[in-house]
Design a protein that fits this description.
- It is a single chain.
- Helix 2 crosses helix 3, helix 4 packs across helix 6 and helix 4 packs across helix 7.
- By secondary structure, the chain is an alpha/beta fold.
- The radius of gyration is 18 Å and the shape is globular.
- Strand 5, helix 3 and strand 6 form a beta-alpha-beta unit.
- The protein contains ten helices and eight strands.
Length: about 270
Amino acid sequence: MSLPSSRAARVLDRDGLHVVESAPREPAPGWWPDDAVVALIHGTMDRSAGMARLARRLDDATVVRYDRRGYGRSRGLGPGGLEEHVHDLFAVLDGRRAVLAGHSFGGVVALAAAVLAPRQIRSVFAYEAPSPWADWWTRWDIDAAGPGDDAAGDAAELFLRRMLGDRLWERLPARTRAERRAEGASMIAEISSLQVPDLAYDPSLVSVPVVVSYGSATGPRHRRSAEWLAERIPDAELICVAGADHGAPLTHPAELADLVRHTARRATLG
């Protein structure tokens, strides 16, 4: 399948955040919410480039994607927890209404933002957003990487080895491995913030339309989290992506783009 043709993109700086904004190639269909942009929010140990394939397939909308604080070209802002990441999202939106699409931790950011600003956030697509404050969630032991002079870097490497596999991790250039290890403190800050129930959002307070999604090939914890969220968010729809695992923004961007459009359509019907 051929990729959509390229379109105009602007690189912006929003309070130190690296932002890429792409204009639609053609006027958006009528089912896009009026004057709303689509904001793509990446997961832990990722960056906006991880959402680029999805962005290319949303060529009928204004799409905003960005490196969250502590990652990629926004690493200079340093680590932050959920509260800081939600604040950053609003800075990226710059007052505009939006349909949000979040992957993993990005889905948590999107849902928390919807609780705070339901008039600005029109609807949310959350792909395999975790729920670490749920009593059934097995806490990820950050200390499992072991003690050392660079415990945060070791934890980041352990996380990515679990996600990518040892072979892919070891094939990365040494500079890339060093850069990813340097993001370990950011990973620890955001994961730690989700493991404190008082700092999390309440799914029952999400009042906008939500599409909660997971992949048929994903792990049982991600599937259970999606089902758990769909049961507790008042206006939620649960959709499984056939053949996808946790890396769906890279492996199934066309299917996710269709679900983002479906999410936007739900906002117009609300």
